[in-house]
């Protein structure tokens, strides 16, 4: 069994993926070729945002978004302590300071009731993370941002395809950033990512920053990065997009099946009724995590921990923080365990995994 089965998906979509790859090899526009614009149009339409800017990775999407929003040294950006490192990394890279608001114990997403107390005269932005594939309380976050004149950048690296009150992830705030890392809900076969916004000025800035801050050939009106997504990777996402809606339905269905089978036995990450999760990971919370993981490993069932250490307790980010500063994240980091998940999992595989978890305790 695989933690995320990418080979099965390729086998099913091989004809279309190979056709798209060969079309790029034949036309030769390997950088910013026609597939890049085609994908940006398709993804913008899918999310409902006016602009989509494809970029080199999810991390690059966050970095370019912060740069376009004018985040500079000395600024503060409020975010969650319980995420993949890239969320805070981009803030620190710009010389700004991540200010952490602890998360909710049941969804593992940022706790909005803790955000406003963190706002200072230096605060410029909020980065909520749609962890495991489920958006945070975006209405409340947007309202706080509006009161204080802040930019909201959704880190939707795990949640492309999820919805919130009838709207799609990546189109829930000023800016949404996603990743096409192979194991994300919509993956390519290398690195890739995308930024979404309906703000024309921000989108124009992002397009320039993506290509070294270039407004015209060899005219660099701002400092940028080498942050393009290549044409081949865009072609692969285009091929996969044909089946994406079905895959999202399967992810929601399999997540619900896990949830129903675990109910009354094992605590799982809660999904709020007004939104969906695409379950980039299917995650449970258990006291004896090592024991469960070992029992599953003995049955050839792989597991993973997302994430074993809150960001502010990582060596490079520590800044004198203590586990007690983020009690919920610290507790979750000791208890979370992610199980195999993907749109092509069989129902009896899910049952077998649930049985193995319950029997291990
Ligand atoms: C994967 C991920 C990223 C980074 O995406 P890459 O494409 O790997 O750079 C950022 N934030 C979160 C929450 C992620 O899961």
Automatic annotation (TrEMBL):
Highest rank taxon of the organism: Bacteria
Example GO molecular function: transaminase activity
InterPro entries: DegT/StrS_aminotransferase, PyrdxlP-dep_Trfase, PyrdxlP-dep_Trfase_major, PyrdxlP-dep_Trfase_small
Residues where N6-(pyridoxal phosphate)lysine is found: 184
Any GO BP annotation: polysaccharide biosynthetic process
Keywords carried by this UniProt record: Aminotransferase, Pyridoxal phosphate, Transferase
Active site: 184 (proton acceptor)
Family, as annotated: Belongs to the DegT/DnrJ/EryC1 family.
Name of the protein this chain belongs to: DegT/DnrJ/EryC1/StrS family aminotransferase
């Amino acid at each position: 069994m695989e933690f995320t089965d990418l080979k099965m998906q390729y086998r099913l979509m091989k004809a279309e993926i190979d056709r798209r790859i060969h079309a790029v090899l034949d036309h030769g526009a390997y950088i910013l070729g026609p597939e890049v614009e085609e994908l940006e149009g398709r993804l913008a339409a899918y999310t409902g945002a006016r602009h989509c800017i494809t970029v080199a990775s999810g991390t690059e999407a966050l970095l370019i978004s912060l740069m376009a929003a004018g985040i500079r040294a000395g600024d503060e950006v409020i975010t969650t302590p319980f995420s993949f490192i890239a969320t805070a990394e981009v803030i620190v890279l710009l010389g700004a300071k991540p200010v952490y608001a602890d998360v909710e114990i049941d969804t593992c997403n940022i706790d909005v009731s803790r955000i406003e107390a963190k706002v200072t005269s230096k605060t410029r932005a909020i980065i909520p993370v749609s962890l495991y594939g489920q958006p945070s309380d975006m209405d409340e976050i947007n309202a706080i941002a509006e009161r204080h004149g802040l930019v909201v950048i959704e880190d939707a690296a795990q949640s492309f395809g999820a919805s919130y009150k009838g709207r799609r992830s990546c189109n829930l705030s000023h800016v949404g950033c996603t990743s096409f890392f192979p194991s994300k809900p919509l993956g390519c076969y290398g690195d890739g990512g995308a930024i979404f916004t309906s703000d024309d000025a921000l989108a124009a800035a992002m397009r320039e920053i993506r290509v070294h801050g270039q407004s015209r050939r060899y005219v660099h009106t701002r400092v940028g990065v080498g942050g393009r997504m290549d044409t081949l990777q865009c072609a692969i996402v285009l091929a996969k997009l044909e089946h994406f809606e079905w895959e999202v339905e399967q992810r929601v269905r399999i997540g619900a099946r896990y949830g129903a089978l675990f109910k009354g036995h094992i605590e799982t990450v809660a999904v709020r009724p007004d939104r969906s999760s695409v379950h980039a990971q299917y995650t449970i919370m258990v006291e004896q995590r090592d024991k469960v993981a070992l029992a599953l490993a003995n049955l050839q069932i792989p597991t993973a921990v997302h994430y074993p250490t809150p960001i502010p307790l990582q060596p490079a980010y520590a800044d004198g923080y203590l586990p007690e500063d983020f009690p919920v994240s610290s507790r979750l980091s000791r208890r979370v365990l992610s199980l195999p998940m993907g749109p092509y999992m069989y129902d009896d595989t899910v049952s077998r995994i649930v049985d193995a978890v319950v029997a291990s305790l």
